[in-house]
């Protein structure tokens, strides 16, 4: 006998999950373990004949062989059925969405996922197994998901819950029925209890978090406490609500929160309860309400984390202007630093704010010469550095303002913009929940262990040392840029750049002294390089901000904060840092949602002028797309296409352009990057002399050619980029190829290899493809005209099997049939060193390739014979 059950006081999610489980376990009986909620009771009054439900008292415990528990994994909440846990002959399956606790059904099979509703988990399984649903079943399942997710608006709701509802709707779920049972009017008892809760409710503030606590007593059990808690949260605008009602012999507690600083699950666990981070409950015996309230306040004091304040998100130091500053000068400051508004000060006192919109209007009307005071807003609302973000948000909404200066002791110490608040509310909010579910309950992302796994031990020792030195100096130091991205992707990257909030040069000198390394400082840029004895080096840079005087210019650098330093980066995925100071080592700093973009596979610029300021970022965007199998977000792609339309890449110096191209050609799959450049219209702007469709087939076959050549024993050249560059240029004539090499200032050796390829590859192909009999030595001499870097291209252009076979034959012969005779042997025979030596050894090599000599003795005899003939001036034929 199979039994499906859930938790006592069964809600719609419990009922729906049982109905779904019955589809997975045909023949199993649904058994309620105890009381059911009033709303479920009303639903069953109409629908119970359609469901296979068995009363608990009719269950013969001895005959149960399998117990399926849904929307619960705590044995204490399944009543008498918990006895089945002690029976080793009962197989237990659990499907739940509540976080794991110490009450788990140990040593049993269970599936637990952090979803908004347990029903979602079962719907996914039904969908995967293609198990059909009737419209009634789909409606019941939708009812369960809507009920437990607050119609998909509770903080615990996930995209998977929404997808499950969409699937149920496609299977005929009736929203009218769902609405009818979810929006039923409160009973008289519930209305009376709600009034008591409203009267007793008290507001508290813990670390900037607004919390409402409401208590009441009831002689009888009143269902729907979760619903009443939700209504309280809608009536009173707070961050979290705790409702406690004494009913019968115990206190029932329900908690809800909309902010990550309050972990309802952790708080309820203090009272023997549990649930989700954003919604949890507890049932307490043997405690009066006064003592419970006192204990709850103590727990909240310890558990509620400090809410982010204006100080945490403000931009600082603040760029300010004076009332007499010209509008055109204020415009330059805004463009330089990407600000949308500037505080106006007289001395140190704030007297107004000027917005970009006001500046643009003034500039449009030719009033760039006018003073800022003529256009500034003097009715300035300000905030303090310790004001919680929620209050900052309220001020922006109430006064309809886009920025708030942060004032301390009558001085402007920072400014908070709409974008700062929105980034916290939306991107970081979801980001924190991801952290809670995936990296522990602390809510703080720490990558110390991943760093230890991916970075060599000696590098980690240096990073710990740098952190200690920075701490002693009162500095903050971070690893930043690409290494952070790759650590999060579990990819090795030894290129560690350090960002210093302080003096990077001073820190570098202290580090160099400690490690015995040489320090090279660049005062203009605030950077330094520490060269170590083992040949490695460490780069340190003072946190700085860059601005561009005009499009495609090199950046001008000023000292700034870490936030500004990261903001100057190309993409959000490269604008993260990891703290190296003791106490916070390994903690992630992510102002711009880089981690969320990284996990979502998105390449996103930090601001709209990114490609205008530095067009080479277009190449990097494409490179990251292809390397990490990511994609640009729509806004970034639109900005890139606009930059291509304006041909901004043509304004970049050839030197900077070649630096990026060379990196692309060293990528694992350069052909994919090059093809994407062509798709976006960048290829013809960078390589107008090269027709892409002519070289595309060869570029795409290079990876296969490389694999084949390695199997043939080919010695791969060190300069991988040259392999692909030769493939790109092989259809060009010698003159245009030479000009391209000059344009990108290639070295003479690389240029000669490219020209040699262009000059000889067609002849070599014709010779290998010739139907006439060919000596291996002759083919080898022909292939010797091509550099090794051209071999992949050459193999890629070969179409005939005969030519491929001969190419392989020559490659293997050259590798395996190397003559043993050398110049020393000729000298020992009495011959004088000279040009004849090379000719003789070359003839011996040819004879060896053609199988005319097979051992050292034959090689020596042939070499002696050839040397005699050369000295006599006789003709040589081998």
Question: Can you put this structure into words, describing what you see?
Answer:
The structure is a single chain. By secondary structure, this protein is α/β, with parallel strands linked by helices. 47% of the residues lie in helices and 15% in strands. The chain is built from 37 helices and 26 strands. The strands form 7 sheets. A 7-stranded mixed beta sheet has the order 18-19-20-17-16-23-24. A 6-stranded mixed beta sheet has the order 6-7-8-9-11-10, with helices on both faces. Helix 28 crosses helix 29 (720-729). The protein starts with a strand and ends in a 6-residue tail after the last helix.
Amino-to-carboxy terminus distance: 91 Å
Q: Write down the oligomeric state.
A: single chain
DSSP summary: helix tally? 37
Shape: globular
Per DSSP, what share of the residues sits in E-state strands of 2 or more residues?
A: 5-15%
Summarize the biggest pleated sheet.
7 strands, mixed
DSSP strand count: 26
Which spans of ≥5 residues are poorly predicted at pLDDT below 50? 427-444, 546-554
Q: Give the overall pLDDT as a whole number.
A: 86
**Helix-strand category:** alpha/beta
Radius of gyration: 37 Å
Approximate helicity band? 40-55%
Strand numbers in spatial order across the main sheet: 18-19-20-17-16-23-24
């Amino acid at each position: 006998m199979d039994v499906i059950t859930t938790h006592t006081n069964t809600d719609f999610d419990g009922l729906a999950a049982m109905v779904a489980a019955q589809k997975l376990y045909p023949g199993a009986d649904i058994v309620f373990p105890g009381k059911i909620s009033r709303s479920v009771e009303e639903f069953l009054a109409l629908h119970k004949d359609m469901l296979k439900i068995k009363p608990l008292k009719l269950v013969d415990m001895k005959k149960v062989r399998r117990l399926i528990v849904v929307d619960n994994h705590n044995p204490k909440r399944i009543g008498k059925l918990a006895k089945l846990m002690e029976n080793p002959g009962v197989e237990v399956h659990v499907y739940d969405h509540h976080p794991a606790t110490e009450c788990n059904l140990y040593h049993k099979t269970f599936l637990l996922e952090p979803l908004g509703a347990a029903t979602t988990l079962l719907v996914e399984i039904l969908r995967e197994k293609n198990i059909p649903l009737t419209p009634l079943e789909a409606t019941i399942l939708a009812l369960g998901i809507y009920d437990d997710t607050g119609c998909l608006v509770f903080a615990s709701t996930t995209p998977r819950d929404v997808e499950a509802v969409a699937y149920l709707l496609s299977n005929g779920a009736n929203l009218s029925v769902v609405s009818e049972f979810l929006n039923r009017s409160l009973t008289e008892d519930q209305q009376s209890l709600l009034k008591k809760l409203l009267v007793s409710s008290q507001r508290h503030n813990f670390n900037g978090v607004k919390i409402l606590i409401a208590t009441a007593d009831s002689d009888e059990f009143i269902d729907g406490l979760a619903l009443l808690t939700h209504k309280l949260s809608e009536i009173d605008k707070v961050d979290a609500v705790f409702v406690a009602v004494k009913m019968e012999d115990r206190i029932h507690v329900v908690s809800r929160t909309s902010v990550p600083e309050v972990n309802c699950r952790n708080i309820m666990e203090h009272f023997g309860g549990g649930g989700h981070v954003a919604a949890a409950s507890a049932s307490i015996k043997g405690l009066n309400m006064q003592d419970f309230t006192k204990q709850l306040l103590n727990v909240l004091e310890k558990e509620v984390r400090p809410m982010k304040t204006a100080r945490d998100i403000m931009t600082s130091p603040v760029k300010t202007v004076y009332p007499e500053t010209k509008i055109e000068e204020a415009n330059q400051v805004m463009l330089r630093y990407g600000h949308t508004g500037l505080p106006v000060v007289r001395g140190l006192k704030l007297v107004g704010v000027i917005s970009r919109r006001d500046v643009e209007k003034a500039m449009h009307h030719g009033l760039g010469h006018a003073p800022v005071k003529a256009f500034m807003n003097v009715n300035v609302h300000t905030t303090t550095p310790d004001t919680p973000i929620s209050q900052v948000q309220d001020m922006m909404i109430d006064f309809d303002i886009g920025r708030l200066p942060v004032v301390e002791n009558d001085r402007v110490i920072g400014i908070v913009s709409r974008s700062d608040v929105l980034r916290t509310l939306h991107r970081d909010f979801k980001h924190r929940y991801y952290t809670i579910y995936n990296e522990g309950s602390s809510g703080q992302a720490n990558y110390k262990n991943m760093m230890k796994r991916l970075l060599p031990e000696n590098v980690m020792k240096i990073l710990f040392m740098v952190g200690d030195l920075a701490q002693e100096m009162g500095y903050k130091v971070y690893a930043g840029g690409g290494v952070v991205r790759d650590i999060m992707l579990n990819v090795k990257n030894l290129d560690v750049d350090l960002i210093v909030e302080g003096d990077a040069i001073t820190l570098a000198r202290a580090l160099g002294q400690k490690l015995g390394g040489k320090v090279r400082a660049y005062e203009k840029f605030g950077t330094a390089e520490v060269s170590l004895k083992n040949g490695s080096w460490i780069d340190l840079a003072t946190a700085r901000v860059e601005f561009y005087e005009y499009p495609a210019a090199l950046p001008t650098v000023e000292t700034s904060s870490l936030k500004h330093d990261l903001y100057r980066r190309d993409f959000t995925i490269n604008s993260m840092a990891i703290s190296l100071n003791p106490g916070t080592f390994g903690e992630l700093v992510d102002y711009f949602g880089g981690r969320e973009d990284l996990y979502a596979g998105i390449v996103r610029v930090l601001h709209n002028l990114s490609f205008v300021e530095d067009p080479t970022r277009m190449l990097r965007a494409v490179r990251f797309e292809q390397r990490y199998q990511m994609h640009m977000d729509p806004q970034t792609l639109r900005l890139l296409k606009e930059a291509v339309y304006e041909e901004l890449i043509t304004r970049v110096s050839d030197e900077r352009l070649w630096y990026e191209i060379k990196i692309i050609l060293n990528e694992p799959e350069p052909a994919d990057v090059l093809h994407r450049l062509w798709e976006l219209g960048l290829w013809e702007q960078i390589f107008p002399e090269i027709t892409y469709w002519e070289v595309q087939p060869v570029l795409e076959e290079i990876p296969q050619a490389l694999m084949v050549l390695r199997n043939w024993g080919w010695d791969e050249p060190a300069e991988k980029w040259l392999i692909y560059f030769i493939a790109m240029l092989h259809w060009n004539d010698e003159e245009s190829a030479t000009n391209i090499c000059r344009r990108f200032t290639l070295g003479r050796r690389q240029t000669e290899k490219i020209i040699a390829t262009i000059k000889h590859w067609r002849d070599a192909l014709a010779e290998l493809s010739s139907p006439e009999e060919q000596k291996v030595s002759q083919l080898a001499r022909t292939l010797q005209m091509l550099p090794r870097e051209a071999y992949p291209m050459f193999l890629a252009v070969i179409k005939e099997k005969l030519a491929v076979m001969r190419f392989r034959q020559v490659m293997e012969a050259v590798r395996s049939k190397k003559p043993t005779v050398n110049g020393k042997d000729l000298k020992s025979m009495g011959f004088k060193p000279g040009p004849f030596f090379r000719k003789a050894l070359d003839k011996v090599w040819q004879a060896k390739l053609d199988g005319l000599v097979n051992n050292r003795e034959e090689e020596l005899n042939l070499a002696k014979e050839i040397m005699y003939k050369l000295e006599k001036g006789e003709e040589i034929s081998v």
